[in-house]
Amino acid sequence: MDINIIKARSYYYEFFAIPFFFYENETKFEVWKDQLAVLKNSAITPEDSEFFANLEKFSFDEFKTEQNTALFDFSYANVPLSASFYDEGRDEGAMKILVLNTLKKSKFRRNNEFCKDSEDFIGFIFYFMSSLLKDELQRGSNFLSTELFVNVINKFIDEFISLLLEHKGTNFFKNLANLMKSFFALERSLLAVDAPKFEKSVAKEALARLPYENRFKNPRNVFKLDK
């Protein structure tokens, strides 16, 4: 695969990861805004230009308000941030094992001191994918990133996007989710992977049964490297 395409994929994954973490100040949000300024110049579809423009208008305070409403409010309205929830209706299930299997083959490890969330936390998964792609630029192999996409990301991403789009309290995340739709359609095309077909939504059935509370802490540094 072309080096520039791999770089762009890595950049997009980090861009998607940042909004799902909790932040006490706007430092990381400003980094995200800088990434947006770069990515908007190479929108995947013409429609994406509008979504980038809409996201540019958000201040950190506006972003935080919506983030709390959509992701962290202890209510039925939470959008689940665990990949396992989309697979089994609960946190820390089989998806965690699949992420760990890929993680163990890489040089990356979750930094327990700074990232208290499980390996199946979607923000962690996106950061991990970004890091794998950056590493693979040097090694010339895409085995681990493809493995992570096929075994984990491809299985939850459609429902995750759907819940972000359907949430009544979202504007920022609706625009982000629309960018994700374009990007992950391209990912499947590049990797020759089909979207999974579901007879029912495990996540929606679980959300209908009981309030869902994210097991979410305040990670600031996601990885540590093996020496």
CATH architecture: Orthogonal Bundle
Unreliable spans are 223-227
Strand content: under 5%
Tell me the helix content. Answer: 55-70%
Q: What value does the average pLDDT take?
A: 88
Order of helices and strands: HHHHHHEHHHHE
CATH topology: TorD-like
CATH superfamily: TorD-like
In order across it, which strands form the biggest sheet? Answer: 1-2
Q: How many β-strand stretches?
A: 2
Distance between the termini: 28 Å
Provide the number of structural domains.
1
User: What does the overall shape look like?
Assistant: globular
> What's the helix count?
10
Indicate the radius of gyration in whole angstroms: 17 Å
- Sheet with most strands: 2 strands, antiparallel
Give the C-level CATH assignment: Mainly Alpha
Regarding quaternary structure, what we see is single chain
**Helix/strand structural class:** mainly alpha
